Amino acid sequence: MDTVSTVTPPAATSATTLDAARLTTREINAALRALPDGSAVTITEPRGRHNLAVGLVNRIGITIDGNAGYFIGGLGDGPDITVNGFTGWGVGENLMSGNIRIKGSVSQSAAASAHGGTVVVEGDASLRAGISLKGGTLAIAGDAGNLAGFMAQAGTILIGGDAGEALGDSLYETTIYVAGRIASLGADARRTDLTEDDVIAVKRLCDKAGFDHIDPQNITKVTSARELYHFTTHHASSY
Amino acid sequence: MCGIAGLTLQDASLEPELGALLAGMLVALGERGPDSAGVAIYRDNGQLTVTKEVGGPAEVCARFAIAAERGYQGVGHTRMATESAVTRAHCHPFTPAEGVCVVHNGSFSNHATVRRRLERDGIAFDSDNDSEVAARYIAQRLARGDDLKQALTAMAGVLDGFYTLLVTTPTEFAVHRDPFACKPAVIAQTDGYIAMASEYRALTGLPGIKDAKVFEPTGLHAWTR
Fold first, then answer.
1. CA of A126: which chain B residue's CA is closest?
2. CA-nearest residue of chain A to B185?
3. A110: which chain B residues are within 8 Å (Cβ-Cβ)?
4. Which residue in B179, B202, B204 is closest to A146 by CB distance?
């Protein structure tokens, strides 16, 4: 854990490389924060480091060249981030805007509580992908683990492969699209008829994500049955 | 939290480096558990050596020269105590039977109930650590004829809670996670080894890691040498 309280970030240029093997996480994030909009930067040797590129509000392009750790790009409100590898838990957690593309797989809780922006996973996502999503977009090319979309409130989740158990458990108003099989639906999640608007939405999302293996006409749509999150006296005996 | 690291070698040329590789993995997980650390080393002569002590993994590994150890399989644990005391008896790894080694990240909610059942069967405990209950239960199943997979599957039906477990015997290396998988695990496989750690950053010092097959296991994964 970093203990440095004040740091002098490395000088920023329009094209910068930051070597994670030589810099603390705090130094890297301070350097990223100091970059002007339009900058491009590459972080090398991430070696599973946590908390890279978090809390940034500048519109910069960041490439993380390797496998990264937890909370990559979390709280972001502007940058576009590409990870040439996989990430640990909570990539894009609480994302506000911007794009994060992970070229490998991601561990748990991808895009958790994301209010905006887009997280694209070119591999698989582990459990609880899109948990408590609040308006952001999560596109997964491969499979998603159990409890994807748990308590998700707004936004869109696209799963290009199969979904695990309890998909959309306690779902609010997020829409979930699944191209593959669904192991099971969670409480209050239900399959819903696909509309023309859904097909267009999936096609646009696939185009943006670069997914060419998904047939937008052949998707399962999952939304909330809305029977769980309103208290009604009719269900009083259930509580 | 707590951190787990395990390494089983297929490439015998790495055996002189086992201790150094395992110590590197464990020290990288130091933030996950500052209270105590422990290492188990399986040697070619059939000997299993367990070293564990109160203190962080860097301190414990340096004090007992873990980096100098050689062997074909090793297990490490760094503990953040949440439910029982910080003493040597409470440290992982637990060795509930000859050659069996258990480390755990998580917590069991019904460990006291299972402990009482085991004690009625005549099984003695070294500590009141919940992880030791899992270790003793697994050993009881193995003693009754289960293989390691069967014992771990049975444990999942009896012990309630969160767990990532790494369980080893002289010939087996098994990772088991509960279905909610709240406690992390990453596995890296190459032709030379199978490595498991709580976090990927603990694996980055292993030879050939850039070309390893790296994945997050769910459920039960077991390998036999």
1. B216
2. A107
3. none
4. B179
Nearest chain A Cα distance for residue B24, angstroms: 14
Count of beta carbons in the 10 Å neighbourhood of residue A5: 6
- B82-107 confidence digits (pLDDT tens): 888 999 999 999 999 999 999 999 99
Residue in A86, A89, A145 closest to B184 by CB: A89
pLDDT, tens digit, 9 for 90 and up, residues A59-117: 999 999 999 999 999 999 999 999 999 999 999 999 999 999 999 999 999 999 999 99
**Neighbour order of strands in the sheet with B94-97:** B94-97, B100-108, B161-168, B172-177, B220-224
Rounded Cα gap, residues A21 and A48, in angstroms? 11
ipTM value, please give it. 0.90
For residue B81, give the nearest of B66, B67, B70, B92 by alpha carbon.
B92
Side chain identity at residue B211, one-letter code: D
Query: Choosing among B25, B200, B215, which should be mutated to test the A contact, i.e. which has the most A CBs within 10 A?
Result: B200
Q: Which residue of B lies nearest to A165 if distances are taken between CA atoms? A: B179
Q: Is A225 exposed, middle or buried (0-12, 13-18, 19+ CB in 10 A)?
A: middle
Q: Which two tokens stand for residue B159?
A: 């012990």
Q: How far apart are alpha carbons A97 and B213 in whole angstroms?
A: 32
Q: Which amino acids of B are annotated catalytic?
A: 2
What's the CATH fold of domain B3-219?
Glutamine Phosphoribosylpyrophosphate, subunit 1, domain 1 (3.60.20)
